[in-house]
Design a protein that fits this description.
This protein is an alpha+beta fold. The chain has 3 helices and 4 strands; from the N terminus they run αααββββ.
Length: 138
């Protein structure tokens, strides 16, 4: 009539907890570098977008004046480019343009969340970006 109940303690063993910790660590080791590259690319996307506008404005500048602009100030004075103040505080742009192509380089300032000194380079001859936030980051 009387049933004897066994006293079962429930919970996880130390081995089970360690296995879970190892699995989480492996997943984090894979996910964190991917996330870091994603964040870099997102930060550099503003520079890539503005460089595209600068390249188009430079073409228009050349068509109207017969010479290539040497700075974004040249483009702004002619009314062919209007950059936001927030963009100018995060990025500095350097133009090295010629009939053969040339480069447009954006260098981040300390105001950018990722820190200063990162460069995004657009090669007009190839039409490709390199540097910060790209797969072939230098």
């Amino acid at each position: 009539m009387f049933k004897k109940f066994k006293n079962h303690e429930s919970g996880f063993t130390m081995i089970e907890i360690m296995v879970v910790v190892v699995i989480v660590a492996i997943l984090a080791a894979v996910a964190v570098p991917i996330y870091v590259e994603y964040v870099k690319s997102a930060r550099a996307s503003e520079a890539r977008s503005v460089i595209g506008s600068i390249a188009n404005s430079s073409d228009m500048f050349y068509q109207t004046s017969g010479e290539w602009p040497t700075s974004i100030e040249d483009l702004e004075r002619k009314g062919q480019l209007d950059l936001k103040r927030s963009t100018k505080t995060k990025w500095q742009f350097e133009l090295q343009l010629s009939d053969e192509g040339g480069n447009i380089t954006a260098t981040s300032t300390e105001e950018m969340a990722g820190g200063g000194g990162h460069q995004v380079i657009f090669n007009r001859e190839t039409g490709r970006f390199s540097g910060y936030g790209t797969k072939d980051e230098e």
